[in-house]
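As a warm-up, study this chain.
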Amino acid sequence: MKSLIKIQMRYGVMAAGIALLLVLLNITFFLGYMLRYGERGITHSYFKMGEITDSLAKKGNGYYMPEESMATVEKEFVWAMLLDEAGNIVWSWELPEELRKKYSIQDVAVFSKWYLKDYPVKTYVHPDGIAVYGEAKGSTWKTRLELPERVIAYFPQGVLGLFLANIILALGLAVLLGYRLFRSLRPLAEGIERMEEKEPTNLEETGPLEELAARINRTSRELARQHAVLEKKDTARTTWIAGVSHDIRTPLSLVLGYASQLEESPHLTEEEHRQAGVIRAQSLKIRQLVNDLNLASKLEYEMQPLSVENIRMAELLRKIAADFMNQSKDRELEILVEIPEEARNLKVQGDRKLLERAVGNVIQNSIRHNGKNGVCRVEVQLKDMEQQCQIVITDNGPGFPEEILRRQGDQQMEVGNSHGLGLKIVQQIARAHGGEMVLANRDQGGRVTIEISR
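Now compare it with the structure written out below.
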């Protein structure tokens, strides 16, 4: 993205500028410090001048330097000589022809600090005079620099002060850059927050973040358009479900009525009675499906008003279990309701019919999917938590498919044809009461936990 590259380059250049500024400030400080107090000069020697000079000893009518010392001189210098107290040359090595053979005290005072015929020189006191060593022309830059003792004494404090000044300056510049970046990014953050709240965003498309602002504006407009399309589709779907539900009630009632009459008619054969019973049972399923569609649609769009009352949960769960046991004709159903002592008087504020529907749907789902596993055993437990109560329903069935467990946290849960709308409605009822539905499998069977806010 070009805008991000621009931002990176801009702040990269600024960071490099800060580093360069700090380096220049430190160099300026150091040079200024040295030049301000430089009066006596500083010299550096990378070998032991004293030992080399002292090794130059008199031998007969001349002087002799050992091979080791001479090797050092040949490595570091281009010529050397020894002046006696009168300024005469009494020993030399590779002495250039342009140099004089005798020097006065004034000459020695000058070239010992600076140059001799553009040769940088170093001098050292010899017992018989002064040893002079010449370096190659243009190899050394000389300047006068002397530091008073008080300057040296305060040098550590100066270095510490410079270090602290660097830290303060760097932090100050970092804060300044951070503030500028914050000012640039704050409108973008506010625009994104407005997008989260589904409000239109119209950011000013200027500055280094111009492209990002333009993209956020375009995204905001696209989201608004998509939201309008989704609302239109949702409205159409809700209207369609409501219309179909209304239109199907009358013919469905006629089918149920005639099926009941045929099932009880003495003029039909036993097979015809059975077929009429099948028609009536399937019609009841269609009516239940229509009611489920209506309820799911109303809960999804918060169109189902809650008839809130103070409900004693232990009493509600026992009633639901008793109703299922009374309706069980083949007695292949066992429901155990477990209410611990601390939860017997537990009460919640909620819609009694919806909570009965939620628990009933879970139990019905266990019965439907128990298959041929023999007696269907369902255990209902009530747990008293700090801010909520939990209804835990377990069974001895096959459990839930992995796809349902994986997608159970989706905002729009799709449970698939095998589980119909039952679990979806349970999830919606739990959320309408400030809670959630949690599915899980056990070693044998499934577990549904319905959480309800107290």
